User: Fold this.
Amino acid sequence: MHRVAVIGIGNVLAADDGVGPFVVRTLEARWVLPDDVQVLDAGTPGLDLTAYISGLDAVVIVDAVKASGAPGELRLYDREGLVKRSPVLALSPHEPGVREAIMNAEFIGVAPGVIRLVGIIPGSTAYEIGLTPEVRAAVPAAVRQVVEELRAVGVEVTDRAPPREPDLWWERKP
Assistant:
């Protein structure tokens, strides 16, 4: 593997919807990744996610997911699990979403060989800044899962010593 990315998606102004950016910024602060691994906070890219994943060998996406379970529970999806899901009515900036971006990348021949989504069940997506306590408590487990997914595709990941504080600019007080 040589072209790998970790992409956090979500709206940091909508409570737990911002968990993707929160996780990738925490990953960067706590772990050292090779220079050829991209770590991106992509916001709410919709179908533009195709451009972010185009031509990669592997991608790990982190996002809030609609799934049965308690807020903060993790769900891991592979490419097959993502594309077999039924299409959804476009009701948010995420739609068209991950599924459609993967299908679009496959259609034009630029899809990554390995696709994983680390999903976290949200407690709230109200327009407010900050994660709910349950989702915030799940961030370390989500980061560990991302690290496991990277190692599974041959990426060498090491602890950052000393760890830094993640740049969570949206949570800073003026």
